[in-house]
Model the fold of this input.
Amino acid sequence: MTDPQARLQAAVTTCMDKLDRAYIRKLSKNAYSCMAACHDHSSYTSQDVQQCVGACSTGLQEINALISNELQYFQNRLQRCQQSCEDEVRDTQAKAGGGKPDPSQQAKLQGIYDKCVGKCVDTHLPLVNAMEAKLAGECKKRL
Done:
C-alpha cells in the first residue's frame, strides 16, 4: 500500500477496530446489561427506570463522544497539513508566473503536492498510536 492516504486510513481503521474489540464491545455489553437490570426493579417508577437507564449509558456515551472528538481533532490536524501542501503548490505556481500550468509544470506541481501530503501522513501516522493509547486508557477507566 504505497498510497499515503490509504496507509493512514488503514492505520485509523485498525486503531478503531482494536479499540472496539478490546473495550467498546465490553463497555456496550456492560451498559446494556445494566439497562436491562433497571427493568428488574418492580419497586421503580417509570421515571426511576428511565433515570437508571440513563445512568447506565453515561459511560458509553462519554467514550463515544471522546472517540468522536479525538477523530475530529485528528482529522482537523491532517486537513491543516494538507491545506499547507495546497498553499505550497499555489506559492510555487505563483512564483512561476501564475496562469494555467502546462502539462510538465502540472506534473511538477502534482509531485510537490504528493510529496508534501506524504510527509503529512508520515507525521500523522505516529499520532494514531498516541490516540489509540489515550482512548484505551479512557476505556480502561470505565471497565
In short: The chain has one domain: 4-142. The helical segments are 4-38, 46-95, 103-142.
